[in-house]
Design brief:
The chain has twelve helices and 16 strands. The protein is α/β, with parallel strands linked by helices. Helix 6 links the parallel strand 5 and strand 6.
């Protein structure tokens, strides 16, 4: 029986490689056949605790019951009519729901299919509003794989390899990554250096009056869950206000309750002009949005923003139910976040391989280094920890500028005891890799 299952899994992998191009990379060779809550099962019948969260999508777990029910009800009404042709209530209701929770007043929303589409449209909207061409993003950032969002993304490999030329009038500034700032710089000084980097862009590449938007992740996602200093975020808000630049808050990975607040920007006490959402918004269905100040959102001419499938009714009803579930789960997310931080700090105390612990709420990470003094990235060891955890039933993702970060994206609804069990496995995996490195 076991042999039949293995051959079945091998057959699926062989078929996958025959028909899927190598550019579409899958992080593991697992084939998922079922998922529920924080657990998924592969084609060989093995169960895993999932802390990958579909790269931040399943923040309320796999198949939340109220989302599934809403989908079944909507299927009996209509699947697609296109909001570019006909109005329908779920689209409007979702826009109202986002206005009620958005980190800016009186927001209007437009809906799309993916995070990349949301970011791309945010820049389009900012350009229409300001009548300026430029956009500034940050090193170590990730904003998507469309040509404009790829141009905004602040890491070359693997995302940009072979896709030149990129979109013009896009510029990049340093992000305040305190763990890797030059020695002797405080967190605040690291933030000051990053703000000076933006001013350097104004002086050397694009005058401020030519910049439409600054696109900013309040916690860098693919970059390794880097959290900026509070003063930097406030300084960025001031800089945008002083120069008439639209502050675009990219919450595609960090938003929707992931950091134990509805939006990560709320941790810093500032209001953006536009906020992008995706991933966790739809509870597992594809949907993204741009929510912003009415005067900015109304700047593009009618018909210039939208798309055939944007705000699909199935995705809208899923998002409405999931948004309500996220709101109700924020206190639990805060408790879970504290539990995660405690355990990760214990791992740093116990293992020299752990150089840094960082993140907010249920968006936290470990950065692994070969030596704490030199901070040499432990890329191979990070991959080994990921593989060892998987062998013991735990799925985690890597990330970071040097691919040496273990990032955790548990459901914000995950029971603390289940989380503790999962982190026991992670700690044991780090310990094993550390011991093997010494031999």
């Amino acid at each position: 029986m076991a042999g039949d299952k293995v051959r079945g899994s091998e057959r699926l992998l062989r078929e996958r490689n025959e028909v899927i191009p190598r550019s579409v990379r899958t992080g593991t060779d697992l084939f998922v056949v079922r998922a529920e809550g924080h657990t998924l099962w592969d084609a060989d019948g093995r169960a895993y605790t999932d802390l990958t969260g579909g790269i931040g999508v399943t923040s309320t777990g796999h198949r939340p019951a109220r989302v599934v029910k809403a989908l079944k009800d909507q299927i009996d009404r209509y699947l697609h009519v296109c909001f570019m042709v006909f109005n329908y209530e779920p689209y409007v209701e979702l826009a109202k729901a986002l206005r009620a929770v958005a980190p800016l007043p009186g927001g209007k929303s437009a809906f799309f299919n993916s995070g990349a589409e949301a970011v791309e449209n945010a820049v389009k909207i900012a350009r229409a509003y300001t009548k300026r061409p430029g956009a500034i993003s940050f090193l170590n950032s990730f904003h998507g794989r469309t040509l404009l969002t790829l141009s905004l993304t602040g890491k070359y490999a693997p995302y940009k390899v072979g896709f030149e030329p990129f979109v013009p009038h896009v510029y990049q500034a340093p992000y305040p990554y305190h763990y890797r700032c030059p020695p002797g710089h405080s967190e605040s000084e690291c933030g000051d250096r990053a703000l000076e980097g933006i001013e350097a862009v104004f002086h050397s590449q694009a005058p401020a009056d030519k910049v439409a938007a600054i696109v900013f992740e309040p916690v860098q996602g693919e970059g390794g869950f880097v959290v900026p200093p509070r003063d930097f975020v406030r300084g960025l808000r001031t800089l945008c206000s002083d120069h008439g630049i639209v502050f675009v808050d990219d919450e595609v990975q960090a938003g929707m309750g992931r950091t134990a607040k509805m939006f990560a920007i709320e941790h810093f006490g500032v209001e953006p002009d536009l906020v992008t959402t995706a991933k966790a918004l739809g509870g597992g269905l594809p949907i993204s949005g741009v929510t912003g100040r009415p005067e900015i959102m109304d700047a593009p001419v009618p018909g210039s923003v939208g798309g055939t499938f944007g705000g699909n009714p199935l995705s809208c009803v899923a998002a409405l139910e999931n948004l309500a579930l996220i709101k109700a789960s924020l206190p639990a997310a805060e408790r879970l976040g504290r539990a995660i931080r405690k355990r990760l700090e214990e791992m740093r105390e116990a293992h020299e391989l752990v150089g840094d612990v960082r993140g907010l709420g249920c968006m936290q990470a470990l950065e692994l280094v070969k030596d704490r003094k030199s901070k040499e990235p432990a890329k191979d060891e990070t991959k080994a920890v990921q593989n060892e955890a998987r062998e013991n039933g735990l799925l985690v993702l890597t990330a970071g500028w040097h691919d040496n970060v273990i990032r955790l994206l548990p459901p914000i609804t995950m029971p603390v005891d289940a989380l503790d069990t999962a982190l026991d496995v992670l700690g044991a995996a780090i310990g094993k890799v550390e011991r093997e490195r010494r031999t």
